[in-house]
Each structure stands twice: as C-alpha cells, then as structure tokens.
C-alpha cells in the first residue's frame, strides 16, 4: 500500500475545507441575489459559527439580517464581530450600512471612510458594499452621489468584471434622478453577464417610476428577466403589486409565483388576505386578516392592520377604519409606512376639523416620499377634491396648486382647478395668476380669458380701471366664432352683460350699452332682465345732465 505523506494530506484537507467554505459562501450569495434572506442565513450559519470567522460570510450574514428587516440584530452582529476583527474593512462597511438605515448618516460615513482606509481603497467588495448601502433608490437613506463615487472607483480597479457593482451604480444614478447614466450602467452590467437579471429588473424599475407611457418598455424588461431566470422572485413580487389594483387575476398569478420562489414568510398570510381585498371580498379580507393576527399574536405583520383599515373603508365603516389605521401607525416602523398609507389615513381624518393640520401633514408626507409622479398627483388631487366637495375652496385651491409643482407637463385642467377654486374662495389675485398662465398657454381656449374677465370684474368692481375689458373682449372674439359649442352662449352672455353695465355706468355711453343689449337679446330674446335693461337704457341717457344738477 502506497504511503501518503502527512504534509500532502494536510494540504488536501485545507484545500477541501476552503472549497466547502467557498461553495457555502457562493450559495449564500446566490440566495441573497434572489432576496431569499432566510435561506442565506441558514447557508451561512456553519461558517459564522466557526473559528476563525470567515469575513465575507460574516458580512453576508449581517446583510441577510438587514434583508429580513432585523436591523437591531444586524447592528449587534456587526459590532460583536468587529470586537474580535477590528480591522475588517468589510464588517466595518456592514456596520456603516446599519447606521445609515438608523438615520445616523454622519456616523455611517465615518464607518465607510474607515472601511475604505482599512482596505487601501482597492477592494472591489468593500467599495461595492458601501455603494450598495447608499444606492437604494426606494429609500431616502443614503448619499447617492457618494455611492456613484465609490462604485465608479470600483469599476476602475484592475481586473474589474462585476455586474453587481454596475447594477448598484445604476441604482445610485437612478436615486440621483440621472436616468441616462442609470441605463448606461445597467446595460454595462448586462454586457458583462447577459443573464444577470437583477440588472434587467432594476432597469425595468427605472422606466416604471417614470410613469405613463413607459409600460411597454418595463414590461418587456420584466418578461425578459422572467424568461432568462424564472426563479427570480423579486420580479414577480413587483408585478404582483403593479397589477394588484388593475388586473386582479394577473396579480394573483404573480403572487403565486412570488411565493413559490421565495422563502417561507409570515407576510405570505398578509398577501393572501390582501388578494381577498383586491377581489372585492372585503368581509373575507377582514376574516383572513383577523386569522393571521390571531395566529401570529404580537408578531403579526403590521400591514394586516392597514389592510383591515382599507377593508372597513370599503364597507363604509370609517370608525373601524380609523381605529385600525391608528393601530397600524403605532405598530409599524415609520420607515416602512408607505406613501399611500399616509394619504389614505389623511382622508379618513377629513371629517374631524380638529385633525385639519394632521390631514395636511400626512398628505404632504405621502407626496414627499413617493417616487412615482402619478402617485404624487393622485394624493394631491384626492385631497383637493375632498376639500372641494366640502366647499373648502381655499384649501382645495392650495392643493390643486401643488399639482403644478409636481407634474412636469401640467394641463389646462390643472390650471383651471387651481384658479377656479381660488375664485370660489374669493382669492381673486391668486385666481388671476393661474388664469393668466392659462390664457397665455392656451390662447384659443375661451376659459382662460372668460375667468380672467370674471375675476378682474370683481377686483375692479366699479370698472374704473377697466381690468376686465380686454379679457371679456377676447372672450367675445372667441365665442362669436361658434356659438353652438357647449356653454359658449352662457359665457358670451356674461361678457355682453358686463359691457352693458360698463358702457352705461362707467363710460356713460348709451349707444354702446344698447349695442351690447341687442347682441345679448339676439342670443336670449325672451330674457326679461335684458328687456328691462333695454327699456331703461333707452329712456335714460347716462351722459345727460341729471335733474337738479349744475
């Protein structure tokens, strides 16, 4: 029997052990890629329990805790391991990530810079960890410009060929609002690895956040991602949410795929209950939510209370709706409360005048944190319409005015809503501002000129300044082209009536006043008020000396 040298055997054992470790880390990284954080923790458990600790495994373990929304546990994990590995750049970057999520931006930056220093500024994994922590476009945490800087540095290190870094760089550019460079980064990642579907998915998210007109682009990207990797769960989760309110059967299909390719999660109970809501089965949604809460107790997913609130709203039970929203806002982490939750909770408070300030604050918060323009506009308009229905016109106008600050290409309708509600609120100066812009942008549209005439007629009630004159003249010019259009006759009569009074009372011009009376009677020959005006003006020349006058 051939004798095996001890040294060779030891070397073989070491190499075998290294191989096992590498395979386990790779497996964990794959789970992280698929956002299967529970599975990643399980895969990493043997490595992080060993001595000496594997640095990469320890970093990934902390990231898995973050993915599972166990921020406290992640912080404790990184701090514990830094006590025994104080010079670990990767663990230092991980600790910085936790601080950033806790809102401690300055402390986080110190950790990040320390990690860069410890690694000599030449470690792609360290720079990527820092960039990733700062690049998430779906949260307010992080410095996107800083992420762009460190991730760009990573791409310039010799031997660079990592699509993950480029995808994170794309996210950082997206967070900055630089869609062009974001696309270039995602495309660069796909050139390195055409099957890196995370880049396809993130590119799709970029187009999705750009709003209406981009659906063909992002759906093509999402479908391409699914085709290349049917197990990539994040795409299904996003599409479940996307179709939730517009195509329930399709949303349900995506939910099935999402849960199929994800780890077991208590949130699955919530998602199933939410489908009952989407199907219009609101009592069933309540029963399902209560069952989830009963099963989980204090550990119940907080969004269940939000779902109950929405279900009660649909059932016209505003009391229970508000009660459940109050519970939701108490038990949910503020960082995890969605923009729609703030907006909906605000609408529930509208009926109580004492909550007026809360209504404004909550809606403003919704507008602030939502990254999608269409959603921002929805929150603004819903509140504005609610105020309008309650005849709180000044509040309605103030919120309609916010549309112009959010919508890049606002319309004549947007200008009208703001201007008209200021008009109803007797804020004529503000009304004039919006209708002036209306008339300038849409000079052939009668409404801008007509409303400018109305507002200025109130501002200049005696007519001495003639503020309304040019606007009513333009109204008449447009209206007389076609009096058959809807509501044109009414607006034309208003303008004629203005000039009847203007020429009689202000200009003392009986002839001109009678001319406008005749124009008005041609449209409304049986109008008794006009007939009375005609008789009066005919028999009373305003320019004639009054009896007893000097």
Question: What can be said about this structure in brief?
Answer:
The protein is mostly helical and 550 residues long.
SSE topology sketch:
Elements: H1 6-33, H2 37-48, H3 55-67, H4 71-84, H5 89-101, H6 105-118, H7 124-135, H8 144-155, H9 163-176, H10 179-192, H11 197-209, H12 215-228, H13 233-243, H14 248-260, H15 267-278, H16 282-296, H17 303-314, H18 318-331, H19 339-348, H20 356-369, H21 373-389, H22 393-406, H23 412-424, H24 428-441, H25 446-459, H26 469-479, H27 488-506, H28 510-523, H29 528-539
Helix pairs in contact: 1-2, 1-3, 2-3, 3-4, 3-5, 4-5, 5-6, 5-7, 7-8, 7-9, 8-9, 9-10, 9-11, 10-11, 11-12, 13-14, 14-15, 15-16, 15-17, 16-17, 17-18, 19-20, 19-21, 20-21, 21-22, 22-23, 23-24, 23-25, 24-25, 25-26, 25-27, 26-27, 27-28, 28-29
């Amino acid at each position: 029997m051939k004798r095996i040298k001890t040294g060779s055997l030891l070397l073989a054992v070491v190499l075998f052990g290294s191989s096992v470790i590498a395979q386990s880390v790779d497996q964990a990284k794959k789970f992280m890629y698929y956002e299967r954080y529970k599975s990643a923790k399980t895969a990493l458990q043997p490595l992080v329990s060993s001595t000496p600790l594997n640095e990469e495994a320890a970093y990934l373990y902390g990231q898995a805790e973050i993915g599972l929304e166990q921020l406290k546990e992640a912080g404790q994990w990184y701090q514990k391991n830094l006590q025994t590995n104080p010079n670990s750049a990767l663990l230092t970057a991980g600790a910085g990530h936790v601080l950033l999520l806790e809102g401690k931006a300055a402390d986080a930056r110190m950790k990040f810079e320390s990690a860069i220093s410890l690694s000599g500024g030449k470690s792609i994994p360290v720079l990527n960890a820092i960039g990733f922590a700062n690049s998430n476009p779906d949260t307010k945490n992080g410095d996107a410009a800083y992420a762009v800087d460190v991730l760009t540095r990573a791409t310039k290190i010799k031997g660079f060929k990592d699509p993950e870094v480029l995808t994170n760089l794309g996210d950082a550019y997206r967070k900055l609002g630089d869609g062009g460079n974001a696309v270039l980064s995602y495309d660069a990642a796909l050139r390195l690895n055409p099957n890196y579907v995370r880049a396809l998915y993130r590119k799709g998210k970029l187009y999705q956040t750009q709003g209406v007109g981009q659906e063909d682009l992002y759906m093509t990207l999402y479908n391409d991602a699914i085709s290349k990797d049917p197990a990539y769960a994040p795409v299904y989760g996003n599409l479940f949410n996307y179709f939730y309110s517009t195509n329930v059967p399709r949303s349900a299909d995506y939910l099935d795929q999402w849960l199929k390719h994800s780890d077991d999660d208590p949130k699955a109970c919530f998602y199933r209950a939410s489908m009952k809501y989407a199907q219009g089965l609101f009592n069933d949604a309540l029963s399902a939510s209560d069952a989830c809460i009963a099963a989980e107790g204090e550990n119940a997913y907080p969004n269940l209370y939000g779902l109950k609130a929405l279900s009660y709203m649909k059932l016209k039970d505003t009391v229970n709706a508000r009660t459940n929203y109050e519970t939701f806002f108490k038990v949910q982490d503020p960082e995890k409360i969605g923009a729609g939750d703030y907006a909906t909770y605000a609408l529930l408070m509208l009926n109580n005048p004492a909550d007026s300030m809360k209504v404004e604050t909550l809606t403003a918060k919704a507008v602030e944190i939502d990254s999608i323009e269409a959603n921002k506009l929805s929150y603004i308009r819903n509140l504005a319409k609610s105020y309008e229905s309650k005849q709180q016109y000044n509040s309605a106008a103030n919120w309609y005015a916010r549309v112009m600050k959010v919508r890049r290409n606002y319309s004549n309708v947007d200008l009208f809503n703001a201007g008209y509600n200021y008009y109803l609120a007797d804020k004529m100066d503000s009304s004039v501002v919006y209708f002036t812009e209306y008339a300038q942008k849409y000079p052939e549209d009668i409404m801008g000129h007509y409303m400018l005439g109305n507002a200025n007629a109130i501002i200049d009630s005696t007519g001495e300044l003639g503020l309304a004159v040019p606007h009513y003249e333009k109204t008449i010019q447009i209206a007389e082209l076609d009096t058959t259009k809807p509501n044109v006759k009414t607006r034309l009569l208003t303008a004629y009536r203005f000039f009847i009074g203007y020429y009689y009372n202000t200009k003392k011009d009986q002839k001109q006043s009678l001319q406008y009376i005749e124009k008005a009677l041609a449209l409304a020959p049986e109008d008794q008020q006009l007939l009375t005006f005609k008789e009066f003006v005919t028999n009373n020349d305003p320019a004639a000396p009054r009896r007893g006058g000097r």
